Amino acid sequence: MKIACAQFDAKLGEFENNVHKVEQLLSNSDLTGINLLLLPEMALTGYKFLSKDEISPHLEDRNNGRSILWAKDRAKLYSCFICIGYPEIDGDQCYNSCALINPQGELVHNYRKHYLFETDLTWASPGEGFKSIDLDPFEKLGLGICMDLNFKYSEEYDFHLNKFGSFHLENKSKLVIVPMAWLLPEDSLDLLDTSASKFCSDTLKYWCNRLSPFFDPETNLDDNPIYFVCCNRTGKENGAIYCGTSTVLKFTKNNIKVLNVMNVIQEGIMVTDIKDY
């Protein structure tokens, strides 16, 4: 099963320019036989809007929004599933969402971010909860968006509960996909040096820690493999610096295997055939 991640530097509010960039990246990549294309959180609009008024012109309907229509067209073109993050409006409510489109260009699921980051709190409502859906050819597909991997930003919370990982283990998700706009830690700014850039190991270790139920022998009793794919963005935006490091991981009892990873500043398409591992 081939999964492609599109990591790039989206410019805030520049939808057409962002579309042009990602289409260039796609056209320069070998996408033969891919089953799923994963894009970042709020991939084509940019992420760090500072208020509801600022993001309002960029909010989209889940059926006919600009990001959705683009994804439907590309899903048919590449004959694959596409998962794309976008800012959703539904009546008088707004959500940080991702849409899952099938190869026929149909919306099969719309997921809304459950745990909101401080930037989201200026405009979005939380989704109702984590999701795991039955969907061929993925068997059981788990969905999340960025901060869902973490914990509730706005409340007292037990860091060690790892609710996202526990949910997907209990619901027997086989593949978990997560669009992201994850920040680069302040003590890792040296990774922006183009002569020495690599992936952010501290962030990768942190993600693995948040997914500890997947490899803990006390929780993963069946030792069934769980694949985790996150597609992060890169670049800078309104003072935010993103850490790239889009990753494909395979978890089994007592073991984590990094199947593929991009560096902090890299723009491109990373294709991984997870059945090779």
UniProtKB/TrEMBL annotation:
GO terms for molecular function: protein-N-terminal asparagine amidohydrolase activity; protein-N-terminal glutamine amidohydrolase activity. It comes from the Eukaryota. PROSITE patterns: CN_HYDROLASE. Residues 1-276 form the CN hydrolase domain. The keyword Acyltransferase does not apply. The keyword Hydrolase applies. SUPFAM superfamilies: Carbon-nitrogen hydrolase. InterPro entries: C-N_Hydrolase, C-N_Hydrolase_sf, Nta1. Keywords: Hydrolase. Pfam families: CN_hydrolase. GO terms for biological process: protein catabolic process. PANTHER family: PROTEIN N-TERMINAL AMIDASE. This is Carbon-nitrogen hydrolase.
